[in-house]
Specification:
Elements: E1 5-9, E2 21-28, H1 31-38, H2 41-45, E3 48-51, E4 57-59, E5 63-71, E6 76-81, E7 85-91, H3 96-105, H4 123-127, E8 130-131, E9 134-135, E10 140-147, E11 153-156, H5 158-161, E12 178-188, H6 198-207, H7 214-228, E13 236-240, E14 246-247, H8 249-258, E15 264-266, E16 272-274, H9 276-282, E17 289-290, E18 293-295, E19 302-305, H10 311-329, E20 338-340
Helix pairs in contact: 6-7
């Protein structure tokens, strides 16, 4: 039987470390809990917000007047075990970083570049998480989700998810409608490593490692992330706050003429992905602090709570950064973090 708690303290469920309360809270440990939840008075009476580990959310207010549905569904199982490919089904409540570690330890490749990304497995398709040349969708097979409108369980394949850059149907047209129950991923026993990103190549070269394995790539990426990104347990943050903007070639060429040093990468569609961190740094915000809020001194893309900040203060600081970049470059940065009120 589910337990709906009142005035639940959410500080442990948001990596900004904000002192936030939810008027109602429930932890979902199995699919049957959701059917029971639909029949509850709390679900019908209040707005709801689905939450994993809270590693990509910003609560603007210190009291969330609604129902937080915390997804805690566990489980890892092998669905297909072939000589070259393995399909694994993972519960939405599993810790993503721990899951990647387990797969690497078992010699299963494909997601090693996504090591140490915080959050749950269920949040990975929501954001289409990505790092160092790999995105979640690259290994995605399907997922099961519970439709809060119909009370039915439905399946989604790659096309139905409409994956984009840090985006999916679960963020765009159907936010908070579907609760992801489990995800299926295809992993490989014969590894095709992606080492094109400069930092990976640099570390491999420094080690003299000419024949790396997936464990080497995972280890190096963890080392890089730990050197650049602050630990949320030590200083409140949600990783990269803004998305890297994607520009039409004509717009990009105009910017490059004005700013020859602009940092960018061509994407597969002929557009250009511009470094949001570079834009923010050039606008003078890297390491800048106002009160208890600032952009991190080592990574201009990371908004941090130095301690005691409110969600409103963090949001206002981020909007000031957004306005400053727009004024200087004519580019409107889009938050990657989900902003909740």
């Amino acid at each position: 039987m589910i337990e709906i708690q009142r005035n639940f303290y959410l500080k442990g469920l948001n990596t900004f470390g904000l002192d936030v309360f939810a008027s109602h809270y429930v932890c979902i440990r199995k699919q049957e809990d959701l059917s029971e939840l639909l029949e509850s008075d709390a679900f019908g009476e209040f707005k709801h917000q689905i939450l994993g580990l809270g590693s990509n959310v910003l609560f603007i207010n210190d009291y969330f007047e609604g129902l937080v549905i915390h997804i805690c569904i566990p489980g890892i199982s092998v669905v297909e075990n072939g000589p070259e490919r393995v399909i694994v089904e993972v519960g939405a409540g599993e810790n993503w970083s721990d899951f990647v570690d387990k797969m690497v330890e078992n010699g299963l490749g494909g997601i090693e570049n996504l090591a140490l990304i915080p959050g749950t497995v269920g949040a990975a398709p929501l954001q289409n998480i990505g790092a160092y040349g790999v995105e979640f969708k690259d290994n995605f097979v399907s997922l099961k989700a519970f439709d809060l409108q119909t009370g039915k369980t439905v399946s989604f394949g790659p096309e139905e998810c409409e994956f984009g850059y840090r985006n999916s149907i679960f963020k765009t047209s159907h936010p908070n409608r579907f609760i992801i129950l489990s995800v299926r991923l295809k992993l490989s026993r014969k590894h095709q490593l992606k080492t094109d990103y400069g930092d990976i190549k640099k570390h491999l070269s420094e080690e003299g490692n000419t024949h790396p394995g997936i464990s080497d790539i995972s280890r190096i990426i963890k080392k890089i992330r730990q050197s650049k990104l602050p630990d949320p347990s030590k200083i409140g943050n949600a990783g990269s706050f803004f998305k890297n903007p994607i520009l039409h070639p004509l717009v990009f060429e105009g910017l490059r003429r004005e700013f020859p040093d602009i940092v960018s990468y061509p994407d597969e569609n002929g557009f250009f992905k511009v470094s949001a961190a570079w834009l923010i740094e050039q606008a003078g915000w890297k390491g800048k602090r106002i009160g208890n809020v600032g952009m991190h001194e080592k990574q201009a893309l990371v908004l941090v709570n130095h301690g005691g900040a409110t969600g409103g203060e963090l949001h206002q600081f981020a909007m000031n950064v957004q306005y400053s970049v727009k004024q200087k470059f004519g580019i409107l940065l889009e938050p990657e973090v989900n902003i909740l009120s």
